[in-house]
């Protein structure tokens, strides 16, 4: 019944009202249309100047020749999001959101015509006031219910079975953790024995950097709403300067398990990689993405963040992701690669250039994140 709630809360729903259109819930298993009239507006998709109700373009990943089969495979995530919805609001201009009631990344104001360039700063260099605002918003995200709900369990579901789902309510932070787990969960495809691909749809593949970029941007937006402060940013944690995790809030502080955090040398090595993510696998030594993901793995091993769940238990994980994103931004600015460099085929499911990142809604392609961060409304100090 409450399937639609998932999409809405992903859509940067306005924290203050927490409403969601019940009509969409029913449509998820029937008409598969979700074109809401957002609160405060009189037309669907907030009216013709903001958006129109349109078909979701279907993008088949071309992977190991499984492309068209993805749709019939029993994994509800593949060919996102059309196993749930085939029509949604398509927002025009600077508008954005499940009902086009919000602003595109980098834009603010009631008409979405104000620009605001965020500067993400290293956590030690924040002002005490900024630190407090961030901490308060983080705390709020851990206690504030989204008003929406998440899937209680993941199953293999064919298109025909996408109904009668079990949901539970959650906090914003719980929702973010859910996104990371849901995208990477292997259980969903484990019995599809014909599928010899890696079921991680958010990592171990080309989409690693782009998926995390969108993830952080969404989290940052929600935290801005929680703090009522459009200047709130997620600070990054430069671990090359550290021997322990001083930023970690929990037992992980000083809890370096084995080995060392990567050094500046390791980061420079990644920055020197000539391509974003070339195929075939024999060229992975030239892949910036593979190198960056290697840094992530090293940090996580050292800190004991072995799974998505474990990583999200430590809020400093977000600051770690912001540092990875900073490295990505730096590499991008040096190389300015054409989008064609991002693989369009032979990627893991959901991770090709034009596939929608799983499980976000409003949808966003990897391609939309493969740009200078200025275009998305933020830079790094
Ligand atoms: C639900 O689907 C019906 C068509 O069956 C459509 O008329 C209605 O606008 C849809 N509701 C939403 C919120 O998209
Ligand atoms: C991919 O599938 C098509 C049609 O199903 C087939 O003609 C082609 O040979 C396959 N390619 C590979 C590399 O298996
Ligand atoms: C955030 O919550 C933690 C415990 O959950 C508490 O120790 C800390 O003081 C809170 N911080 C703020 C700024 O409220
Ligand atoms: C695997 O593929 C074969 C041949 O295409 C098919 O007969 C079989 O049912 C498939 N198995 C599963 C679990 O989908
Ligand atoms: C990542 O994917 C490769 C194949 O692309 C696979 O061999 C490897 O086991 C995967 N690693 C993890 C940690 O899943
Ligand atoms: C949010 O901030 C703006 C200006 O910064 C202020 O005018 C407004 O009253 C605030 N809203 C709430 C709910 O605190
Ligand atoms: C990657 O490996 C190939 C051979 O395995 C080698 O020719 C190439 O120079 C290497 N590239 C880099 C950037 O190390």
TrEMBL record:
Residue ranges of every copy of the Tyrosinase copper-binding domain listed in the record: 172-277
Alphabetical list of InterPro entries matching this protein: Di-copper_centre_dom_sf (IPR008922), Tyrosinase/Hemocyanin (IPR050316), Tyrosinase_Cu-bd (IPR002227)
Keywords tagged on the record: Copper, Metal-binding, Signal
GO MF terms held by the record: metal ion binding; oxidoreductase activity
Keyword Cytoplasm among UniProt keywords: no
Signal peptide extent: 1-18
Family matches, as Gene3D superfamilies: Di-copper center containing domain from catechol oxidase
Pfam family, one: Tyrosinase
Protein's recorded name: Tyrosinase copper-binding domain-containing protein
The organism of origin for this protein: Plectus sambesii
């Amino acid at each position: 019944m409450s399937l639609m709630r998932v999409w809405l809360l992903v859509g940067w729903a306005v924290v203050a009202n927490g409403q969601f259109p019940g009509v969409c819930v029913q449509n998820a298993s029937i008409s598969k249309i979700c074109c809401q009239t957002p609160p405060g507006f009189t037309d669907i998709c907030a009216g013709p100047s903001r958006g129109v109700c349109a078909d979701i373009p279907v993008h088949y990943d071309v992977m190991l020749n499984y492309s068209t089969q993805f749709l019939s495979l029993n994994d509800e995530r593949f060919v996102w999001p059309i196993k749930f919805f085939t029509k949604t609001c398509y927002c025009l201009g600077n508008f954005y959101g499940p009902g086009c009631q919000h602003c595109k990344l980098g834009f603010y104001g009631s008409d979405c015509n104000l620009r605001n360039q965020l500067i993400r700063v290293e956590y030690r260099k924040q002002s005490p006031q900024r630190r407090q605002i961030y901490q308060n918003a983080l705390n709020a995200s851990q206690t504030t219910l989204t008003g929406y709900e998440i899937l209680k369990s993941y199953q293999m579901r064919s298109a025909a079975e996408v109904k009668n789902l079990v949901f539970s309510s959650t906090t914003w932070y719980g929702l973010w953790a859910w996104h990371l787990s849901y995208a990477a969960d292997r259980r969903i495809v484990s019995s599809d024995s014909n599928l010899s691909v890696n079921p991680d749809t958010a990592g171990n593949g080309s989409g690693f950097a782009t998926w995390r970029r969108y993830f952080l941007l969404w989290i940052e937006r929600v935290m801005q709403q929680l703090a009522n402060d459009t200047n709130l940013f997620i600070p990054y944690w430069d671990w090359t300067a550290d021997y322990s995790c001083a930023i970690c809030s929990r037992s992980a502080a000083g809890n370096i398990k084995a080995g060392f955090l990567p050094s500046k040398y390791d980061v420079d090595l990644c920055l020197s990689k000539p391509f974003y993510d070339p195929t075939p696998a024999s060229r992975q030594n030239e892949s910036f993405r593979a190198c960056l993901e290697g840094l992530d793995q090293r940090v996580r091993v050292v800190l004991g963040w072995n799974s998505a769940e474990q990583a999200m238990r430590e809020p400093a994980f977000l600051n770690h992701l912001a540092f990875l994103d900073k490295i990505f931004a730096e590499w991008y600015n040096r190389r300015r690669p054409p989008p064609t460099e991002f693989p369009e085929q032979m990627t893991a499911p959901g991770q090709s250039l034009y596939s929608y990142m799983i499980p976000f809604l409003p949808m966003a392609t990897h391609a939309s994140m493969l740009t200078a961060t200025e275009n998305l409304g933020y830079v790094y100090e």
